[in-house]
Amino acid sequence: MNERVTLIKNAKVVNEGTIETRDILIEGEFITKIAESISPKNGDVLIFDAEGRHVLPGMIDDQVHFREPGLTHKGNIETESRAAIAGGITSFIEMPNTVPQTTTIDKLNDKFAIAKKTSSANYSFMFGGTNDNLEEIKKVDPKQVAGLKLFLGSSTGNMLVDNPEVLEAIFSSTDLLISVHCEDEATIKKNLEVYTERYGDDIPMHFHPIIRSEEACYISSSKAIELAKKTGARLHVFHVSTGKETKLFSNKLPLKDKKITAEVCIHHLWFSDKDYDNKGSFIKWNPAVKSEKDRDQLLKALLDDRIDIIATDHAPHTLEEKQNVYTKAPSGGPLVQHAMPALLELYHRDKISIEKIVEKTSHNPAILFQVEKRGYIKEGYYADLVIVDLNSPWTVKKDNILYKCGWSPFEGTTFKSRITHTFVNGGLAYKNFKFYDTKFAKQLTFNR
What we know:
By secondary structure, the chain is of the alpha/beta class. The protein has two domains: 5-55 and 378-391 and 415-435, Urease, subunit C, domain 1; 58-369, Metal-dependent hydrolases (TIM Barrel), CATH 3.20.20.140. The protein is built from 14 helices and 19 strands. It has helices at 77-86, 105-118, 134-137, 164-173, 185-199, 208-211, 214-231, 243-246, 266-270, 276-279, 292-303, 319-322, 339-348, 354-369, and strands at residues 5-15, 18-27, 30-35, 46-49, 54-57, 59-64, 89-94, 122-128, 147-151, 178-181, 235-237, 260-265, 309-311, 385-389, 394-395, 414-415, 418-424, 427-431, 434-435. Strands 1, 2, 3, 4, 5, 14, 17, 18 and 19 form a nine-stranded mixed β-sheet that branches. It is an enzyme of class 3 (hydrolase).
């Protein structure tokens, strides 16, 4: 069988802070040549003329919930990974709060087996920590697993790690990167009681960021950082949502040398508390979408490198579930399909450069998680590439939403930019709302 050969011509290649017009030669799974002009060697080359369009390294989304196993009425690895490649995401790291939870090696291997058969995007998984699975954590192979996920708030099942002694033992016992969800449960519980007494279950949605408050986030984040400094653990704080928390992080070291890092999610860069009256539970996330001031401070920290990564926290629920009253409506929403178009909209609004978007969505996740040969457009790297047309408007509608849950908080939004092609390991996996049956995805490996 002949090796697949693809030539992308006249591309505006966005990589390592530059945009340069180049040709990209892909042989098999890898980029083998990048030059001003490359001539095809023979007639078997698949040629794409990308003139006028940008080529980005595929986004590495370090936080998704694809709901498999056990919650597949909301989504599954097959449906959500297809939506991901349509949104410019070629690799994902999935979270452990499935049913059953990914808190044993056997359950982790079960998820790898599912992804190997059904995923359209490259995949890895976080291993979940609990109050009583330290011995299992010690068995995790750091070359095969992205890291460890701890819920220090807003957990499902028994995944809330609230025993200080256990928490310190975990931080002291693993070299894995520890990613944390930080919200203080005691503070949230106290706030919720106030509003439940006033409104019952049907609390107006705009009180969500007051119940899951700035204080709840800051207390938990600062405690986690204090523990990481005490134990020397490698800490990554997921979905920072407040301006106050950004002061906990530093830009004094290059990312590869940082021991404490942070992520912001697209919904916290896009929405504000002014959107609750219109969007209601469709923008109910944990941590909550907060004020415009918080949103501006998050963007500022992202641009000055106190915040290192942009992710989605894609977490679908059914329309029926989301339409419940406040206390019954689950938090979370689908986002992977609209990730890159939303970020590029911020570029069109002069909020962020394309080079910075690529740094925070591709380069930095690769550095942070030590992902092998991905996250850049370089010779010798896997050809995970996204072709983007910055001037091809489209509107998010029911009939073009790809999530299994069938809805999006962006419904009705017109984006100026669209993903026209997505290559995964050199194979054309997606083109203009059309998918290809061949699965090119691979399990991510880590250079540790």
